[in-house]
Write a structure and sequence with these properties.
Blueprint lengths: L9 H4 L4 H16 L7 H8 L3 H14 L2 E3 L6 E3 L1 H13 L2 H16 L2 E7 L4 E8 L21 H7 L4 H8 L15 H14 L2 E4 L6 E11 L5 E12 L5 H21 L4 H10 L8
Antiparallel strand pairs: 1-2, 3-4, 3-7, 5-6, 6-7
Helix pairs in contact: 2-4, 3-4, 6-10
Amino acid sequence: MSTPARTPDLEAAASGGGILAIHRALQVIEILAEENGGLSLSEIARRLDVNKQVATRITESLEVAGFIFRHPASDQLFLSYRICNIGERMLHTSRLLEQCSAMLRALADASGELARLAVVENDALFWVLAAVSGKRMLQINPLYTPSIKLHGTATGKAWLATMPDARVREVVAEPKLKAWTKNTITDPDRLLEELAEVRKRGFAITLEESESGVSAVAAPIVIDDIDHRPRCVGIVSLAAPTHRMGREALIAAAPLVTDAAGRAARMWPITALEHVRAELSGSVRLEIL
């Protein structure tokens, strides 16, 4: 007689560890968000540094809630679209996607390259929107990096440049910064010197600093918040293969990017929630822009 398939009980699955269990569940979501091929329960347990019993409770809770699913053949765990839908509903509520998509499309078409929008939230940057021009055969994958490397990308530098130097040191928080390529700036003092230049010209550029063959130019989206203080709420960027856009081409494209950032700022939804996000993100008065 065959044993019926076990259905995880939500209360039982969620009853292991209170706040720590919630923290670990969120870690699982972040881990799976970085994986295209899913992960086994054993691998999730290894990355969480917990035993398989704990990992089972956490993943069963997430399965029941619909945030992850298990492939029936491989038994690998994957992130569901429910996470994406939650974020997208929030963005649609603020009308951010609706208002910025046309701006990004125009930037992509005018430049012939990849245009992206990142938003600032809680001391971090997150990609939320991308537009790819149809003019080029060779293009960069809009999702080529799941996270934004602050000191190695034009997007990260454009955001860091909106902070005073003391705040930059707190955010990067390393005596020697990680190198992703031979061009990555690893000395915090040298990074601060470059950020001073970014503030003067109003945009940041990078040449193969986070990934070989990729260069970019980016500008901050600055709004006057509810309390009438200027805040950086996001970044508009343009990325391209380096053989197509070297330093001179990036600088030449910068006015397109700064203009797009300015248009995004004028249409950005100013809400009480946006004010809270800005306060939590550590965005400050801009020194020179």
